[in-house]
Amino acid sequence: MTMTKPTYGLVLFATALALCVVILGAFTRLRDAGLGCPDWPGCYGHLTWPGTEEQIANAEARFPEAPFEVHKAWPEVVHRYFAGTLGLVIIAISVLAWKNRDKPGQPLKLPLLLLALVIAQGLFGMWTVTLKLWPQVVTTHLLGGFTTLSLLWLLAQRLRNAPWPHPNVPLARWRALRPLAAAGLVLVVLQIALGGWTSSNYAALACPDLPTCQGHWWPPMDAKSGFDVFQEIGPNYLGGQLDGAARVAIHMGHRIGALVVLGSLCFLLMQLYRNAGGAALRRQANVIAALLAIQVCLGLSNVLWSLPLPVAVAHNAGGALLLLSLVSLNYQLYKSCAGSHV
What we know:
By secondary structure, the chain is mainly α. The protein folds into two domains: 1-162, no CATH class; 168-342, no CATH class. The chain contains ten helices and no strands. The longest helix is centred in the last third of the chain and has 32 residues, at 244-275. The relative contact order is 0.12. The model has no long low-confidence stretch (mean pLDDT 91).
């Protein structure tokens, strides 16, 4: 199977751009700039944001409930333009995939799925503003961004179609690794969803101490309110609407999820080192181990240092990279066990 080089290069660019969009989205959210522009797709009626005193006065008259703050407007605008550019690139990838659909090595379903996903992401980006940071929409929008990034990375690997070496151990051992790797991927996705729910409900600082929470190993919590996905649409959710006990429940859920992910990935890594039987999987295991260690350190630092912006953004980026490493691992195991191409 030959590689479709123009499409492959464009997909690599789109993957890097998607990672930037994920990081910019985290930066915007963590700076409380999700409503830095109260309208959509413009910003106070401008392609960028108001610049002159007259423009600012007109903007505030038009949106009296949303006073203009330039330090919140520009992150939102930059994020929108990066996301819009990514959408255009994915459209180009889909067009190329359709044109090259009869060529060897050119997937079609995956680019079309990405096209549908980026359209949905555009809608969720609009609803994030129009529904005033409703946590359900914000979390779904975040998961959509991570899904877009993962599928682009998977598409890049499929287009590259590099041969994977067969293991130097019985193939049954590698096949036994596949459900462990798939479970690790699912758990990381669930933990990212918990992280998004924690961030969108402003619960990251609900527990300011470690290893306890507010001095308790099991603090008073309101899990029913904290994980109520049917909370009403209507109020402005900037800063959050939940009380302290509900936010503690969300934060503790994220902590427990982190322990589950840490334990499962450590077990997966032990099995990989024991049964890899080749340098390719060992390198992949080393990457996962390094990213996991970094994520743990960043997560602890967020609590100990009260969510400093650079550390919090790096934690989001680290989660994205850990997710991509597990996508690579699952693809590598699947392809090697298949013994041919996918």
